[in-house]
From TrEMBL:
PANTHER family: ASPERGILLOPEPSIN-1-RELATED, BETA-SITE APP-CLEAVING ENZYME, ISOFORM A-RELATED. One of its GO terms (biological process) is proteolysis. This is Peptidase A1 domain-containing protein. It comes from the Eukaryota. It comes from Cordyceps confragosa.
Length: 155
């Protein structure tokens, strides 16, 4: 839930998790790396509990915010901002044979003056996308080190 604490379950899968979709993990760089697609674009990313935002390539981020009336990439604010009253579209990414959808309500952070800061921002063109808390809160996520895989179940 947005603006709510998350939780961890060690040694098992949370009771609410149904239909867990698994994807292989590339841990060669010390991260939970996985391949996915967003809006038809291939994405290499990591699942990171220490990152707040969802950081994707500029083209994906720009395409998303084209759907949000009045959204601008504001250098002074450090990223995409928009009117807090704006309705944000959902964003989906593939996992295995399925998809996980991040509800638009999880993609905004209130700032001062009626402007909200987007929970989806650019990864700076470095080619590595980071699926932080914004993405993790949309799903139950299973970090399965024993089988070298990452599981996602829609909440």
């Amino acid at each position: 839930r947005h603006d709510a604490a998350g939780s961890y379950v060690f040694g098992g899968i949370p009771g609410g998790a149904r239909d867990v979709l698994y994807t292989p993990v590339d841990s060669s760089q010390g991260f939970w790396g996985f391949s996915t697609s967003v809006g038809g674009s291939a994405v290499s990313g990591i699942a990171d509990t220490g990152t707040t935002l969802l950081l994707l390539d500029d083209a994906i981020v720009g395409s998303y915010y084209q759907q949000v009336a009045g959204a601008v990439n504001d250098a002074q604010q450090g990223g995409w901002v928009f009117d807090c009253g704006a309705q944000l579209p959902s964003l989906s990414f593939s996992v295995g044979d399925g998809q996980i959808t991040i509800d638009g309500s999880l993609l905004n952070y209130a700032t001062q003056g009626g402007q909200c800061f987007g929970g989806l921002q650019s990864n700076g063109g470095n080619g590595l996308s980071i699926f932080g808390d914004v993405a993790l809160k949309a799903a139950y996520v299973v970090f399965d080190a024993g089988n070298n895989q990452l599981g996602w179940a829609q909440k």
